[in-house]
From TrEMBL:
The keyword Glycosyltransferase applies. This is Glycosyltransferase. InterPro entries: Glyco_trans_2-like, Nucleotide-diphossugar_trans. Pfam families: Glycos_transf_2 (PF00535). Belongs to the glycosyltransferase 2 family. Pathway: Cell wall biogenesis; cell wall polysaccharide biosynthesis. Keywords: Glycosyltransferase, Transferase. Gene3D superfamilies: Spore Coat Polysaccharide Biosynthesis Protein SpsA, Chain A.
Length: 293
């Protein structure tokens, strides 16, 4: 029998087909079931949201604005004190929520995430991550189930738990387009604000890592998000390294033009003036290979 937890799970979905229904069923039938499941349909045309849903599910629809906008919308309407952002191609098992809630009770300003394994081969992937190159690519961190709570440099957005009030006060996800890097930018901003990023190996979520997405990826939006993250958080040699890596892509021109259309340097200055921990310390600890020195 499921035991409702004081959690709103927010699922952003776009052209996910039957994977969405399977994810919702896993949550609804779980030993640790959330009080509510908010599905934000980010402009799907595949009919994946057009079905009868369990009573705890609410479906919101919007034009295709990207994962950050969809997650932010779900968080705004959430009614529970804790929000879990979950990809639409996941499954949960056992008491997966209780360990996350316990850690948030001890560290209410934290971003926390579970251990993750691959849905196809059941291979253990990791718990938390660190940045490994100038484009903010990340690598999963290995952690044993009995290791206890671990500090991490990044809680990947496929499953991320946070207190709603803390998330809203921080401004939510940056208004990035498409998909990609929104979790990295949030981690950088969160860490600089002095808040912890924690991995909880005791909690386990299964994620389907797909070779190809069920929709055409927007590479310009991804590159634009990389550049926006760099403009917000990097400077000097680190910023030059990221921009140089981005110039390899044919879409660099339109991506940098769009990225520079907002006052990112003013936002960069504001972040630097209000940070509790310097971004250089984050880069030394969690991205030494990507941004050495």
């Amino acid at each position: 029998m499921s035991r409702d937890q004081p959690v709103s799970v927010v699922i952003s979905t776009f052209q996910e087909g039957d994977a969405l229904a399977a994810t919702v069923a896993s949550l609804d039938e779980a030993e640790d079931a959330p009080h509510e499941i908010i599905v934000v349909d980010d402009g799907s045309t595949d009919g994946s949201c057009d079905r009868a849903w369990p009573a705890r599910v609410r479906v919101l629809r919007q034009a295709h604005h990207g994962i950050a906008a969809a997650r932010n919308r779900g968080a705004r309407v959430a009614t529970q004190p804790v929000v879990v952002f979950l990809d639409a191609h996941c499954a949960v098992e056992g008491p997966w929520l209780r360990p996350l809630l316990r850690v948030l009770g001890e560290a209410p300003r934290a971003l926390v995430g579970p251990a993750v394994r691959d849905a196809d081969d059941r291979r253990y992937v990791g718990c938390g991550a660190e940045i490994v190159d100038e484009l903010f690519t990340y690598r999963w961190r290995r952690a044993a189930a009995d290791e206890g709570v671990v500090e991490v440099g990044l809680v990947p957005g496929g499953c991320l738990a946070v207190r709603r009030d803390t998330f809203m006060a921080a401004g939510g996800f940056a208004d990035f387009e498409g998909f990609g890097v929104e979790d990295v930018e949030l981690a950088l901003r969160w860490w600089r604000a002095g808040h912890p990023l924690l991995g909880v190996p005791e909690s386990l979520v299964t994620h389907r890592f797909r070779a190809t997405a069920p929709y055409r990826p927007d590479h310009r939006a991804w590159l634009q998000n990389v550049l926006r993250t760099a403009l917000l958080h990097l400077s000097g040699d680190q910023l030059r390294a990221c921009v140089s890596a981005c110039t390899r892509f044919e879409l660099f021109g339109p991506a940098i033009a769009t990225a520079l259309a907002k006052p990112w340097m003013e936002l960069h200055r504001q972040l630097a003036e209000t940070e509790h921990r310097p971004v250089e310390e984050y880069l030394r600890r969690w991205a030494p290979k990507a941004f050495p020195g």
